[in-house]
Each structure stands twice: as structure tokens, then as C-alpha cells.
Amino acid sequence: MFKAIAHAVPLRWEKWRDHFRRYDLPLRRRGLLLLIVWSTFVLLFFSLSTRQEYYILPALPALALLIAAWLVHEHDATIARANIRITTILLVFGALVAAFSAFLLIHAGHVAPNTDLASLLNQNPGDYALSMGHFLDLTGPSIALFRFPLSIAALSLFLGPLISLILHKRAQPHAANLTLAAGAFGFLIAVFFGLHTFSPILTSAQLAEAIAPQVHANDLITIHGEYESGSTLGFYLQRDNIHILDGRSSNLWYGSFFSDAPRIFETPESLAAKWNKPQRIFLWQSLTDPPSQLPTVPGPVYILVKSGGKEIISNQPKR
Predict the structure, then answer these.
(1) 216, 239 in Cβ contact below 8 A?
(2) pLDDT tens digits for 141-185?
(3) Cβ pair 315, 281 in contact under 8 A
(4) Has this prediction a pTM greater than 0.70?
(5) Which residue, 74, 103, 139, 146, has most beta carbons within 10 Å?
């Protein structure tokens, strides 16, 4: 039986090899097929994940090479017609985005200076594991704080394809491509300003900056809840000994039981026992949590700073 199997395997392999040789592709087509499979697999696979906005980065080199291969043949008549169709589709999309953006900007109204963005959002922490889940937080009044980046994005997405289409029809593909790239660059600039406006919601950098002059080496800094929520606090304060209150769960749960795991997990009882002692305590907490879930401590509570729907309280006043 083993001899029969050993004899049949090479024959079957040669049969499959001859079958695929009929579809043998030139070297250039093989390279393009590899790039298409590479980028498509990454995009489709990570579309099933929760945070694909950064998981899809491995597809970008393949997409860049595919675009380069397309641009090499931009003077070909077939490619030129395809470029006009693609640019027309981009123009329609950009026009719709621009019209919708104009509608939002007109109805957004105005907000008072120095308004905390968190007070205008409808925050949904349960959806933040989804890609772009923070979009669900936006409300009509909050759009007023994004007036500048939204205007840049709308103009970039509309004017870029519009001018590019005009240049394509004038048989100036190089200038058309540069115009389209300029529109994409303008959109990225808008994204930068938008993230800067939204950063108090995503990070604790502002909180860390406010308390940094008051923090001493022997002070206790504690995050209430999941460590992920306030993890940037330790980064900006350059502290690797952040304690966690009611957060012995999720990714940290298993390792927290190791014999050499640092003793950083606090309970309401342990924090209450330390609250009235001389050691200064900084407690980070999210204001999006229901009031019933916020920690209660025996003794005075001093609110040091609020920003982005988060605050830091202490057992001692500002120094």
C-alpha cells in the first residue's frame, strides 16, 4: 500500500503542475497579482476586526506599488479613459461630502470659547472597540468645534477631483495626478486638525500636563477602571508605577496573579485606608461612568483638573 501511495503522489503532483502551467503569467502580471492578493487579503481580513484603522497599514505598500504601476501607463488610451471615470466617481463623492459638510456647518451654531468638547458629545464607551467608534459620539453642537478642519476636508475632497478631471480632459495626466495628490494632502491636514481638536477625548495628555508640576516621586497615582482608559497618564508623566483601582480585569487579569507581578491593584478598601494618610494621592476617573460607579473615599476630595470627560482628584489641595 505504501509503495502505491509513493508512486501515486509524484504522478498527481505532475498532473497539477501541468494544469497550472496552462495559466502561467508573465513576470509583470505575476507581480501585479501578488500585490492585488496582498492588499485585498489584508483589507478583507482586518475588516472583520474591531480596530482596522491601523491594522490595515501592512496593505499600504502594496497599494502604493499598484498605484505606481497604474501611473506608469497613464498615457495609454484605455488607462486615460479609466482615469476619467475614476476621477468622475471621486468628484461625485466629494460633491456629496461637501454638500453634507456645508449643511452641518450651517446648522452647527456657535459654542462659547474654551468649551470642553466632552460636554457636547453623546459618549458611547461600549462602541469604542469598533473602528471609528468615536464618530457615534458626535452631535450637532459639537460640529461647531470642528468648523475649520471640516471646511478644509470638504474643499479638498471637492476641488481636488474637480480640477483633476478638468486636467484629465485636457490631456494633462501628470498635472491631474498632482492635483489629486494635493487634494489628498489637504484632507490629511484636515484630519490632523480634527484629531488635535478631539485629542482631549482620546488622551490624558492635558491632565498629565496640569498635574506634572505637583507630582513628586513618592506620590501615588491611581487610575479608576480599565488601565486602557487612562494609560497615557503614565506615559506623559513618565511613571511606570501607576496603580489601578477596580481594574483587575481584561488583559491584565491573568498576569496579575503571577508571583512576581507588581502590587499595583487597589481596592476601594485599600484606597480608603490610604486616603487620609500623609502620602498624596492622584486619582484619575472618567466622568462618563455612572455616578454610582465612581469611587467614594473617606475624607476631603480636591478636584485638580477636568478635561475631555475625565478628571483628576486628590486627597490634598494644589501645591
Answers:
(1) no
(2) 889 899 999 999 999 999 999 999 999 999 898 899 999 999 999
(3) yes
(4) yes
(5) 146
